[in-house]
Design brief:
With 110 residues, the protein is an alpha+beta fold. Helix content is 18%, strand content 27%. The protein has one helix at residues 70-89; strands at residues 7-14, 22-23, 26-27, 41-50, 53-60. It has a 3-stranded mixed beta sheet, with helices on one face. It has a two-stranded antiparallel sheet with strand order 2-3. A hairpin with a 2-residue loop joins strand 4 (41-50) and strand 5 (53-60). The longest helix is centred in the last third of the chain and has 20 residues, at 70-89. The chain is extended. The termini are far apart.
């Protein structure tokens, strides 16, 4: 019998070490996150990091997510990263004139 999908997506982030990592004397450039698609779930997304490098993994249930549609996730991630990178590279807006300050009215007693 076919059971319905209960969870659309599971997303996990596993932050790694901030410094360099070595394996057999060689630096490790990235980790590939492996997130299992558990029973009654459609999609699992994993994010790992080493230093300033991030790796993403997308895993889908073949019955719930068609393989030919998984590329939309990667395409969207690449586009979002490009937008974020462009925003980070942009010059900050010119300093605005000092904003007016609010003063609180004094309350009298009695």
């Amino acid at each position: 019998s076919h059971l319905p999908t209960v969870v659309n997506a599971v997303v996990t982030n596993v932050p790694g070490p901030a410094g360099e990592v070595y394996l057999a004397g060689m630096p490790v450039d990235c980790q590939i996150p492996m997130v299992p698609v558990f029973h009654k779930a459609a999609l699992a997304i994993g994010v790992n990091s080493i230093g300033n490098h991030f790796s993403f993994g997308f895993f889908g249930c073949g019955e719930a997510v068609k393989q030919e549609h998984m590329h939309y996730l990667v395409k969207g991630l690449n586009r979002a990263y490009s937008e974020l990178d462009a925003a980070a590279q942009a010059e900050p807006p010119a300093a605005r004139s000092a904003a007016p300050t609010r003063t609180r009215a004094k309350r009298g007693r009695g």
